């Protein structure tokens, strides 16, 4: 049996710092590594990058029909900033995520951290600073909802995900379902189904988001933490706590496998 080819348009919302770029590659490489690492034996991945920041490039309507999914990366930018590339990104996602206006109504959309926040804004929700501008950094236990346990295919009540944010989505938009929470961030991930009246099967997921970074590894998070601390963006206590947890179990591959399940039996 030939492998099923899954085509994903990766909307690059940032560029890694020079030190991470030199050691781990750009975000196309980082996301590609995670997705290839968890690739089911009957699937084949095609990952096409689009620079939505500097080039503000997107797949046009005809090209979009060739993709199975859009994936939005994280970013050091604030999703709520009214600057041209972010405004364009929110408008684009608003159009292609709405089956009534999308040229590809069966398109899946996956949002990671900043991407999670952009999707929330695109569907009419909000994004803002966490209370007290508190950071969540490093491996963080997420308390899963019953649906979250189903979506991620786990039996336990928690999932450990690398985090790097101090903005959050403070609500669950209409027609979306919550996957998990922390004490700082109520909405740590969400899903919307193509038809909310149908059974909630993985293949019926239209939108899947997570606030954390399944693509990040310990060396990447440690480097970002040190860089932001050195720049005065992160206090000593936040850095030290993240470093204390740096060797905790990282369940990023579990999130990636959940992504693969939305495309069919794996």
UniProtKB/TrEMBL annotation:
This is Glutamine amidotransferase domain-containing protein. PROSITE patterns: GATASE_TYPE_1 (PS51273). Residues 58-217 form the Glutamine amidotransferase domain. It holds the Pfam family GATase. InterPro entries: ChyE-like, Class_I_gatase-like, GATASE. The lineage of its organism: Eukaryota, Fungi, Dikarya, Basidiomycota, Agaricomycotina. It comes from Marasmius crinis-equi. Transmembrane segments: none annotated.
